[in-house]
């Protein structure tokens, strides 16, 4: 198959404003004692603690139970105490039997609400006398999830395990919560004044879940079991990603024979449904011009014609952009529309610069739609539990 997407070469970057008895004992120590306990728990990170990103990138295997009392990896974005709080949140979710997507949602929520710190409140004097990791001033909100009095007593809301359990209890009551956008689900639980703020934490929350729980963010729930690297055909990984189509990768990313091929070609029959790889906003949905300036995407293209044919660009949380080229008919989505992970956005075709039906799929970083922002989609999607299959 042969394609070259003009869409990536003549459009520049966009600038868009756009984490048992021993457990119980440790949680009591964390929640209900003073500075000595905080020092002890911080020390469990240790100078020789593994890098969290390295652990997050390891192969996905059986989901690992989080050891709150053990040594935890380090993340540059957070200190040891904050990572310990993340471990508590995940462990509570595991003990409750909440699927791993819930752990990602809970972590991202706590990251936004408190930066994973157990916050007292200057307007709630009782909270200042209890162990805490900082002082907030948002109404009468307390703790990791900034919960208000309806969630529990002052002491309960400042108990990380209690706060996490209350969050999960409400989360699992949200209809279709595992398939809905993270920010929408978090907002249904929290009823925040900033409902769109949670999504930006999804990527780091997934990495922390992967590092602490053996690649759990790369799993999808199938028949009640967490299965690694199987997010396709509409199944959504805990990370929030899915493969756009289930076909095999043919022509690869920037090969020796095609150094300017800024994506991969995934073979599939004409008319195969193309799904959004993650929740996002439509940046572009149009017929790409060919080398002669023509916009005639309702016919099959040919090698050397130029252009992406009918194509869509989606902007995702974290500044990621995905591109879907050579659709058979006009895409099913329009510019500025919000689409959810796994939503059908078009069908496979051969419009534009193409020698046969397939999906040309690209991933870009840092809001950059230009070739300089493109990265290899194969490792990118594998790290999110939605691998692009090798051609058979």
UniProtKB/TrEMBL annotation:
Alphabetically ordered keywords of this record: Membrane, Signal, Transmembrane, Transmembrane helix
M23ase beta-sheet core domain: residues covered: 260-367
GO MF annotation list: metalloendopeptidase activity
Gene3D superfamilies from the UniProt entry: Glucose Permease (Domain IIA)
Keyword Membrane appears in the UniProt entry: yes
Keyword match Signal: yes
Transmembrane residue ranges: 16-41
Name of the protein: Putative tape measure protein
Naturally occurring in which organism (per UniProt): Micromonospora noduli
């Amino acid at each position: 198959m042969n394609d070259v997407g003009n869409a990536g070469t003549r459009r520049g970057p966009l600038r868009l404003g756009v984490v048992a008895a021993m457990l119980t004992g440790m949680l009591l120590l964390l929640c209900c004692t003073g500075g000595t306990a905080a020092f002890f728990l911080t020390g469990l990170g240790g100078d020789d603690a593994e890098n969290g990103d390295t652990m997050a990138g390891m192969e996905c295997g059986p989901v690992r139970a989080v050891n709150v009392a053990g040594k935890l990896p380090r993340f540059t974005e957070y200190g040891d105490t904050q990572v310990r709080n993340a471990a508590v949140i995940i462990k509570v979710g595991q003990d409750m039997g909440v699927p791993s997507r819930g752990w990602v949602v809970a972590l991202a929520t706590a990251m936004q609400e408190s930066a994973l710190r157990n916050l007292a409140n200057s307007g709630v004097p009782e909270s200042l006398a209890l162990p805490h990791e900082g002082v907030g001033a948002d109404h009468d909100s307390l703790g990791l999830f900034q919960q208000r009095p309806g969630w529990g007593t002052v002491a309960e809301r400042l108990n990380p395990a209690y706060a996490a359990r209350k969050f999960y209890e409400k989360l699992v009551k949200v209809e279709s919560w595992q398939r809905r956008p993270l920010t929408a689900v978090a907002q249904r639980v929290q009823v925040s004044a900033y409902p769109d703020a949670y999504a930006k934490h999804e990527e780091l929350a997934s990495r922390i879940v992967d590092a602490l729980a053996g690649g759990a963010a790369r799993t999808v729930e199938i028949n009640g079991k967490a299965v690694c690297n199987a997010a396709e055909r509409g199944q959504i990984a805990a990370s929030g990603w899915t493969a756009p189509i289930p076909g095999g990768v043919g022509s690869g990313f920037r090969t020796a024979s095609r150094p300017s091929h800024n994506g991969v070609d995934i073979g599939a029959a004409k008319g195969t449904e193309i799904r959004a790889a993650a929740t996002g906003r439509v940046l572009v949905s149009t017929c790409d011009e060919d080398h002669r300036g023509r916009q005639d995407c309702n016919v099959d293209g040919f090698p050397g014609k130029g252009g992406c044919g009918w194509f869509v660009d989606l902007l995702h949380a974290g500044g990621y952009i995905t591109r879907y080229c050579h659709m058979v008919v006009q895409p099913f989505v329009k510019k500025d529309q919000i689409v959810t992970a796994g939503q059908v956005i078009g069908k496979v075709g051969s419009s534009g610069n193409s020698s046969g039906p397939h999906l040309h799929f690209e991933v870009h970083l840092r809001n950059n739609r230009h070739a300089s922002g493109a990265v290899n989609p194969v490792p990118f999607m594998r790290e999110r539990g939605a691998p692009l299959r090798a051609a058979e």
